[in-house]
Amino acid sequence: MASRQLSRAEALACSDCMHACHVMLYSDTNAQLFGKTPIRHIILMQMRFDGLLGFPGGLVKPTEETLEAGLSREFLEEMGVDLPVSVEDHVESTHVPASSTSSSTSHLITHFYVKKVDEKQIMEVEKAAASAAVDHGQEVLGLVRVPIYTMKDGGGLAAFLSHSFIGNARFQLVNSLLRFNLVTPEELHKAHTHSLRICSNTAKDLKAALALTE
Amino acid sequence: MASRQLSRAEALACSDCMHACHVMLYSDTNAQLFGKTPIRHIILMQMRFDGLLGFPGGLVKPTEETLEAGLSREFLEEMGVDLPVSVEDHVESTHVPASSTSSSTSHLITHFYVKKVDEKQIMEVEKAAASAAVDHGQEVLGLVRVPIYTMKDGGGLAAFLSHSFIGNARFQLVNSLLRFNLVTPEELHKAHTHSLRICSNTAKDLKAALALTE
């Protein structure tokens, strides 16, 4: 990652930068998958209009509103729920080089927030996202929970990490999993290793599909 | 694809095979993304418990119930909606070699159904999946719409196809897009080409992430 970490204040000092704010909402849970694998935490991400996975949020103009007010506004549009986000929920600001994003913007700073809520609130968000959110079917194609467990056959976190993410969203997810002790570095290492294998199988399948149409 | 196509009758004749039934639910829509890109169709897929994308459905025992009754039962559990599926909705049965599935089963036949409904019904399913479905948060981590459009910057179908899918689900999706004229072969070819590029970027990112933890 050639991305550079900044403090929130440093980041805001860049007046010709574009600022994007996103939030990872998560909760604890006692639920077990198939009555045996502890699910441990529920983490929300979304399928975006561009077919990539990402966190709720969007562009904010610091000259017009605070980063946190802008993020809450985006969250309401995308998730249909009023979620107050505060400076205390901020975890990192990152300068993303133009080449590693899909946008053509040369100066993008992504501000990332993590907010812990309870399981009931997560479920309220899921319901509202599919019914009350104005962006449903537009900017947002659906909400998904991130499996952080690893099943006997290797399924779970590894498969999830092998998907395609917008900008530095995968990095933000992985960073937060470690920062908040939601997975251990060992679990993550194993998942990444398996993830790479899944990814190379996907490439093989896509090449085969492409060959069929040539 | 080394998978072999079978008729429904041929497939059912295999008594020691495991049978899995899945359905692609879709509708037309006049909605436009950001008021300019025609969305054309809404297609539903889901994030599964194992972190992979797939269609609603599951294993059915033909000795105990018809394929279609089993599929409707699975759909109700996963989506929270009673959807009658009939033999007329069947589009293909495929013998999937053991090596190309993540399960250890040597004889798996996947039966695929496509059912067209109206936009209102799609939205009912999305609401029910997040509230009434018993499998929500268990077998199903969330519902997503498949973007079949291609945006100016290449986003949309290509990104979606670069994700990781269970078994032959990507193949079933692509096949159905062509069979029901939801995308043209040219659109699909372009999407696959771009998809492969996205996939190789993902591999690069994963390798970098892995290197950080070694």
Descriptive overview:
The structure is a homodimer of 214-residue chains. Chain A has a single domain, classed as Alpha-Beta Complex (Nucleoside Triphosphate Pyrophosphohydrolase). With 214 residues, chain A is an alpha+beta fold. The radius of gyration of chain A is 18 Å and the shape is globular. Helices cover 36% and strands 25% of the residues of chain A. Chain A is built from 6 helices and 10 strands, in the order βαββββββαββαβααα. Chains A and B meet through helix 3, strand 10, helix 4, helix 5 and helix 6 of A and helix 3, strand 10, helix 4, helix 5 and helix 6 of B.
Topology of this structure?
The structure is a homodimer of 214-residue chains.
Chain A: E1 4-6, H1 8-13, E2 18-28, E3 32-33, E4 37-38, E5 41-48, E6 53-54, E7 57-60, H2 67-79, E8 90-96, E9 108-116, H3 119-131, E10 140-145, H4 157-161, H5 169-179, H6 185-212
Parallel strand pairs in A: 2-9
Antiparallel strand pairs in A: 1-8, 2-5, 2-7, 3-4, 5-6, 5-10, 8-9
- Tell me which CATH architecture of chain A applies here: Alpha-Beta Complex
Distance between the termini of chain A: 35 Å
**Measured on Cα atoms, how large is the radius of gyration of chain A?**
18 Å
- Low-pLDDT segments of chain A: none
Secondary structure: helix percent of chain A: 25-40%
Helix segment count of chain A? 6
In short:
The structure is a homodimer of 214-residue chains. Chain A is of the alpha+beta class.
From the structure above, extract its key features.
6 helices, two-stranded antiparallel sheet, Nucleoside Triphosphate Pyrophosphohydrolase, globular, alpha+beta, 214 residues, homodimer
